[in-house]
Structure formats: structure tokens, C-alpha cells
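# nightly structure sweep
# worker-07 picked up a monomer target from the shared queue
# config: single-sequence mode, recycle default, output format = C-alpha cells
# input follows
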Amino acid sequence: MTELPKTFDPAAIETRWYQHWEANGLFRPDRPGAEPFTIVNPPPNVTGSLHVGHALDNTLQDIVVRYERLRGKDALWVVGTDHAGIATQMVVERQLNAAGQKRTDFSRDDFVAKVWDWKAESGGAITSQLRRLGCSMDWANERFTMDEGFSKAVIKVFVELHQRGLLYRDKRLVNWDPHFRSAISDLEVETKETQGGFWRFRYPLADGVTLADGSDHIVVATTRPETMLADMAIAVHPDDARYQAVIGKEILQPITGRRFKVVADEHADPELGSGAVKITPGHDFNDFEVGKRAGMKAADMLNMFDADANVVQTADGLIPDRFLGLHRFKKDGVDGAREIVVAEMKALGLLVPHVTKNKEGEDVAADFEPRTIQTPYGDRSGVVIEPWLTDQWYVDAGKLAVAPMQAVRDGRIEIVPKSWEKTFFNWMENIQPWCVSRQLWWGHRIPVWYGPKIENGTLTYDFNLTDVVPFVADGPIEATVASMEYYKDRGVTRPVEILSSPEELKVRVSGNGTDPDAIYLWQETDVLDTWFSSALWPFGTLGWPEQSETLARHYPNDLLISGFDILFFWDARMAMQGMEFMGDVPWKKLYLHGLVRAADGQKMSKSKGNVVDPLGLIDKFGADALRFFMAAMESQGRDVKMDEKRVEGYRNFATKLWNAARFLQANGVTASTSREAPHAALPVNRWIIAETVATVQAIDTAMAELRFDAGANAIYHFVWDQFCDWYIELTKGSMDDETKAVAGWAFDQILVMLHPFMPFITEELWQLTGERAQELIVAEWPVALYEVDTDAQGEIDWLIRLVSAIRTARTELNVPPGAKLRMVVRDASETTRGRLDRQGAALARLGRIESLAFGEDVAGGAAQIVVDEATFILPLEGVIDIAAEKTRLEKALAAAAKERDSLGGRLSNPAFVEKAKPEAVAKAREDHAEKTAEAERLKAALDRLG
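# output follows
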């Protein structure tokens, strides 16, 4: 047994032990006959770095995996990274830009090769950072969403969804990022408050129609005047009496001359503005739905922007040429469509000015009403997102959502906390088609090949690449075969050739694009949304579509731990795909944790400067301290507030554990040789055995319920309070063989119980405190069975309460630390007298009691303590100045009570509670509770003096 150093260096311990565990395959020991336990990590972006959200999420997963491994299970924690389409392409493009190059300088294949080169050299830094956190993942089988096996699964799912009628091509609105020239997911849209305007315009009614009040126009309001170039309707509420007479009548749009109808739709709010809204279904999600309800087909909705958000001609050709090529709004100092539309409407006398009063009471007119607008931005590009009507590939999420909803209802999937079920059902019941195509080069290229249409026996190619025949297939050979059969069935038997890109069409097919010598196919240029591939994670990582033993053994997974913010983007979609392709739920339990916020409760962001680097905390306090903080603060249904002082406190906890081990070693305590508790006769030893077993049971219950905070706090208080503060103190100077055996056994159980939370220091102490047959990471979980000696437990609990009360009284009454006191006991039962007899030595040492007497009178001032039925009197005459002490306590009590009442008054004032900042109210409540407790403590001290 090696002598423990006085202090420990977390960095040295962590590096050494992680390398040892991984090199020796201890994260996935060979346990073929054991009960399987499976969990998959949410694959972080290959471009990513460890942030506090990762630290929380992966700490919780590692706690569960280490716990189940200690319980003897075949614990598999699947690990891997996501190819992160936009993020990764952006990183590589920036590198090219720095070298004076751009993506389009290269062929698609050459650019993709550069991305793979980047991944080999720089990608996956986060995997080494996860190792620093202590994540015991199955690195030997690390996966990547673009690796060969996983890509095979992705292609198969796409093709089969199409064959089952659950995936199709459609024209719908998407979140379009003009910077990347790609659709993006809702998760990649960041809504920001911006200072914008609310413009009001008069739209003339056509054909001499007027409103009931004689007006020949309808006033509409908008925050996006530029989109009026593609307006297709005016909507009014069906019950709005002002517009009943003009529903179905036509509007004449002033700039384009386009005629369109006034439609009735409940989207229009009679109480908002004029109650009439302009409808641009090609550039607004709400308007798109209004347009559909009005009978407009998506293919007929007007699109006025190109992929760069510059104005293009609409299908009806009515946008004046002077607008074509303009950006949607001012850019680089040049007025855009917005500014010119406003100017022209104003010149036509159709702008309704916003009128306010100046200081002199005079009317002041402005073109618009200033408004704070919730504006969508691309989270990576930083540009305003444009709702854009375009052809994309969609999954019929509504049909796929049925099975997961039923699984939650019947309990096959348990959502923890249960409160999230309502949110889950609300989203799933109102789910929209899922856009899965992205206009990028990096990612899973969509397995669709397009060919020409046949019109009257003639092949016809559309150079705009929209009017085409799609062939969904596993690969180019399968697409070729499918196309040959398709065209043969329609009387065309020509060779089929696959082009390297659709741009080749104009080279191969001349003239008007009809009847070339061969049938040319070209592959879809879009790639799949990264969420599409990661939705297959629970089974694609286990070898599917191959029907392997690993897949059969580990699917369904047992648990998924996820942030609530990706419940819909990832979790729900895994449930959809898992149930569709595996016929079973992807996991039996879904645990949703909150966000990690700044100490003041605000969301962390770089712009606020409140982002916390978890690697910096690991450098400063060690991974064990950060992990324990995350576990202790993770309370179901609540966010975690980052608090560096608490992390430091858990570093101190590790130090206390280390010092306890040094004390035990110095007193001849060695490692236990049995999981079973040793025989014990002394009450103190029987007590600590019972407390140990109770802690095991508490952690088992907490883990079963996924109460990470309860588990962490159970082991924390047992180690700090029962074992270190009391057991070690109670046994100092009396370490006989029985006590050594019990102390060694209890400390071993501590190391095992604490290991899931603090793996590094526990493994180090496990090895340094005795000879071991195996590493702690693969040891056995403690036995939670022991016949509790209630007499012994009651006796030590009584002793702890009595000593604690004596120490509190001494502190509150300013008794000098070195002073020894007499104690007089009154009204003691036979049980108490027996306890005093057996525990007298411990009481004298821990309470600094020099003598003990029963029932005698006490002259002068004294402190009185009541424990159970007995009163314990500590004479203080000559020890302290009792009169002065009473005066001090009375003044302190008065001051505390005054502050308490002042704070109470503020908190009872509705004006303060409702109008003050939330953090100010919270601080007042904390201070009020603190002053209330202080006043109660001081009053108790005064009462003790009599």
C-alpha cells in the first residue's frame, strides 16, 4: 500500500487514469452473459468544442453508465460525432477564403475531399474534450454520421420512406438562408429583437367597389413592404362587419397592377390595425397557410426573390423592371426593394403617415411607426432569414408521429419529467411536413436521379431542373435500371447515361432540349438535413441495416438523456424513425434536462460575455468537481445556474475525501476484502454500517428515478457529515481491530458509490488504499442489505444531536474554544443515563465537557439545552460575562429583526414584486430568509441564557 501524498493534483490523476481505462478496454469490459444496458450520446458536431451544455448532458450520461457498469451490466455507451453540414462546410470555406480561394473554384468532389482532409487533421477536437470530462464511452466503436456503414443506413431509410409513400418532393415555404443559399432547420434560426417599422398603405378597390363607409380602398399594415410586389390577396376576418361587402371583390395593387381578391380568414385580427392584412403566400409562413385555405396551390404562389434574396420576376411578369436585381432591403448603402416600394407608394399618395405630437403639441408625420420586431436570423450566417417558396424533399412527419405518440401514451416510452408530455403531444399533434433537403455540398447527397419527361413520345429536358422525372434509388446503377424500365414502358429505348452534374445538360442537349440521342440522368445536388441522419442514431450505430447480434442485443436502447431544446429536432424524430424501421421504440425512457444558465439566470451568449468555458473550470478545479456540480444542481424541470463558487466547494469536497483517506491510512485502516459488512459490536460501528447501507439505498432510489441531485446530495452528506465529521471524530483514539475493519469497509463503499459522480479521485484512492483484484471502474456495486440495529443507530444519532447543540451554544454565546464546561443533567430517563455512561468519553472530547452531574442546582447564569426528554445545563458563571453577552445578543436580535421586517414589507408590496427586476425580487427573498433565520438563532441563544 502506497503512502498517500499530502495533496493531490487532479490534472495528473485524470490524464493517467483515463488513458489506463481506455487502453485496457475498461469502458466496455467483456460481459457476454450480462444484462445489456445501452445509451447513445447526442452526437456533437464534428466542428464543435465542449460547452457547458455538453458538460451537463455528458456528465449525466456518464453517471448512469458508470452506475450500471458497477451493477454488473453490459453497459454500452455509443459515441460518435455528427458531420454538421452547414457548420463544417462553413469552416472549410473560411479556410479557403483565407487562402484567397472559394468553394466554387473547385469541383464538388474536390471540395468534399478537402472537407474530409480537414476532418482528418482538425475535426473531432470535442472527442478529446469529452475524454477530459471523464466520459467512459465505447471509443473502440466510435461512429460518424458520414462513415460508410452509417451512410448506407441513411440511404436505405430515404429510399424506403419514398417507397412507403412517406417521403416526397413538394413546393413549400422554408427558412432560407441567403448567405449559405440553403434551407435551414428551425433550430438554426435565432430570433432577435430589431428596431424596425410598421408601414400602412392604401390598397385601391377595383371596379369602383367601395366599403360600407364609402371608402374606395383598404388600409393594410406591414413590417415588410417590399413583399407587396408578390401580394396575392387581402385577408379580413369573416365576422368583421366593415369588410363584409367586399369579401370576394378585387384589389388593384398600385405598383404591379396585379388584381387579387379580398378573402375571409380568421388569421386577420379585427382588433389589430385596420383589421386587414396583405397576403404574400410565397414569403410568409402564416400567409402561406392563408393562401392554401383560399384555394391557392403552392405551385401557383408567387416568388419574388432568388437564392440571394434579390428581386426576380414573378411568374405573372408584373414586377416592373426597375425593381429586378435589387436586394430585398438596403444593402451596402444601396436602397433595396423595401426603400423604393415605400418611396413609390408615398409618391402615389398611398402611404398612410404615422402621426405623433412633438413637445409643442404639433403633429409630426413619419413614414412608419417605429416597432421592435422579432426578426429571424441564421444562427451561423448572421443574415435575416427569408421565407422562400422552393422545391424541397419532405418527410410525412404527421404519419410517422402516430406510433411514437401511442408509445408515450401506453408507457412504452416514459418521458422524465412527465410534465414534458404535454409539450410533446402538442407538437406532435400539430406537426408539419419535415423539410430534409439542404443546398450544400457537404453531407449525404440525396439518392435521387432526375431524367426528362416524355411528351407525345418525345424526351423533353427542362433546363430549370423543375419539370423532371425523379428516380429514387440506392445508387446510380439502381437508378439507371429503374429509368430504363420507366422509359421503355413509355416507348423510349435509348442508352442511359448519368451526367456528372446537371450543368452538363446544356452541353449534351442542344436547341430546345428535346429528343437527344440518349437518356441523360443527373443526381440531385442537394444533401440531407443532418437531423435526418442523426434520427437513425439509436439503430444505425448498432450496424443496421445488417441484422447483427449487437443490434438485437442493444435495441431498443434503455435510456436517452437529452436537452429539452432538441426534443422535437432530434428526440421525436428518433422515435419516428426507430418505430418505422425497427418496429419498436428507440429507447424505453427519455430524460430531458434543462439549460445551463449564467449565475443570474440569464441565457449564456457571447454577446453578453457570460459564457463559461467548462475546460477552464476543469483546469482550475478538476473534472470531478465540475461533474459533481452538474449532478448536484440537476433538478428535474429546472435549469442549472452556473456557480463557480459551488464548483470550488466540490473541489474542497474532494480534498476532504482525500484527507479522510490519509487519516485512515495513518491509523492502520486498509482496504476491505468483502462487499458484505464486517461483524460489529460497538454502537458507533453498527451505526456507520447502517448509514452506509441507507446511502446505498438512497442512491439506488435516486438513480431509478433519475434524480441526479438527490443521488449526489445523498453521497455528499454521507461523506461530509456522517463519515468525516462524525464517524472519524467519534473513533479518533479508539481505532481497535473492529473499528479498522468497519472503517475500511465503509470507505470502500464510499469510493464505489461516489465513483459515477467523481471517477478520477475515487479510482486513485481505490488503488492507493490497498491491494485490489480489479480497477474501481469495474468493481461491484455495494450490497444494500443489512439488519439495522435501531438501538445503536438511535444512540449515535442522540450523541450527534447533543454534541451539535453544545457546539452551537458555545459558538452563539462566545464561549472561548479552549474552555471546558461542567454539565448538569435533569429529567434524564434510564435510556439517556445509559447512553451518557457509554458515550461519556466521546461527549467529553467532542463537547469539551470536564464533568457530568445529575440533578444538582446551578448557581448563576447557564445555557440550557433540551434533547429528547432531558435538559442539559452548562453553567457559565466565570466563563463569560453573562450580562454583556445578553446585551450583545439583544442588540444583534433587534438589528436582525429590523432588517427582516423591512425586507418583509418590501416583499408584501405588490408594486415592488411586480415591477422590480426578477433578480432584485429573488435577492430580497434570499435576504429575508437569511435575516429571519438569524433572528431565530439569536432568540434561541437568548432563551438558552434564561
